[in-house]
Write a structure and sequence with these properties.
299 residues; alpha+beta; Arc Repressor Mutant, subunit A; SH3 type barrels; four-stranded mixed beta sheet; globular
Length: 299
């Protein structure tokens, strides 16, 4: 009789779910990945791989040259993953990504996430990112509509509302941000990215910007804002990549005008060192920043 997930112990389900998630979203699975994640011996890993192959015999194939397992073209997930958990795993570097449906320890709710990337698209993007491969994608832009692009994914970024992939755009010959949910029809090209298309060449990603955030000067009781953000000496000092600084400022509604001219009611914070945004392309997203919005990269 074929093995069923319900026959596995809780701990083995977690290991197999992690095994599947890592293979699917990075394109590479090594025994040492499971050993390091769960602290198990090689023999236990071999048993887990045997169990997974019994559950889904066509999902993984062994690559002798790379001494690893890779997902096949016939891959079909055994476990149900939530996009939020997978993205959290990619962002935080821990957790198993599987929805265990456990009862909450205490009542806790949030505003929810209205945007959920397609997991097949996400997996294609992350495999290309981890493998240094270009992708041919269909992309739907706010400004120019649908088009075919060849991009080289180099990083994922969360702007608080949506997930983007930072990628080199071969047509426009520059690094830009692409909204994950606007990517469709993904094909990985059988070639390697060029050196100038990889993350170290992305000047806006490599550059770190120092942001000095203070209570909006027009607020009557700035101490309340200082308490909200645990400010020290009335200042919240942040460091952000230039490629992401504008997203940070927009997410927290930080007045980025030199003379703090935006409404204090909707902007409790002010960026007092606005000069730090010189040459920062994403600054076009910052509230009140007057430089022209860069084309397409923020579409």
């Amino acid at each position: 009789m074929k093995l069923d997930v319900s026959q596995l112990s809780q701990s083995q389900r977690e290991r197999l779910a992690y095994l599947e998630m890592r293979a699917f979203f990075t394109g590479v699975l090594r025994k040492t990945d499971i050993e390091a994640r769960f602290g198990v011996k090689p023999a236990a890993v071999s048993r887990d791989l045997a169990a997974y192959r019994e559950l889904a015999s066509e999902n993984l194939e062994y690559d002798p040259g790379g001494k690893c397992y890779r997902p096949t073209d016939q891959f079909a997930a055994v476990f149900s993953f939530s996009a939020d958990r997978v993205l959290s795993w990619l962002l935080q570097g821990f957790g198993d990504g599987i929805e265990l449906r456990l009862k909450k320890a205490a009542p806790c709710e949030g505003p929810g996430n209205l945007v959920r990337p397609d997991l097949d698209v996400l997996a294609s993007v992350t495999r290309a990112l981890c493998g240094g491969k270009p992708l041919k994608v269909s992309y739907l832009s706010l400004t120019s509509g649908p088009s075919s692009r060849v991009i080289v994914p180099v990083a994922l970024a969360d702007n608080g509302l949506r997930w983007h992939v930072r990628a080199y755009d071969r047509v426009r010959q520059r690094f830009s941000d692409f909204v994950l949910t606007r990517i469709d029809k993904v094909d990985m090209l059988d070639e390697s990215a060029e050196e100038h298309e990889l993350l170290p060449a992305d000047e806006q990603w490599v550059r770190i910007v120092d942001l000095e955030v203070v209570p909006h000067p027009d607020i009557e009781w700035p101490q309340a804002v200082e308490a909200d953000y645990s400010m020290e000496s009335g200042v919240l000092k942040l460091r952000a990549r230039a490629a992401l600084a504008g997203y940070v400022l927009r997410r927290w509604s930080i007045d980025s005008t030199p003379d703090h001219s935006l409404d204090k009611a909707s902007h409790h914070l002010w960026l007092r060192n606005t000069q730090t945004l010189y040459g920062v392309e994403s600054a076009a997203l910052a509230p009140g920043y007057t430089k022209a919005v860069p084309d397409e990269g923020m579409a």
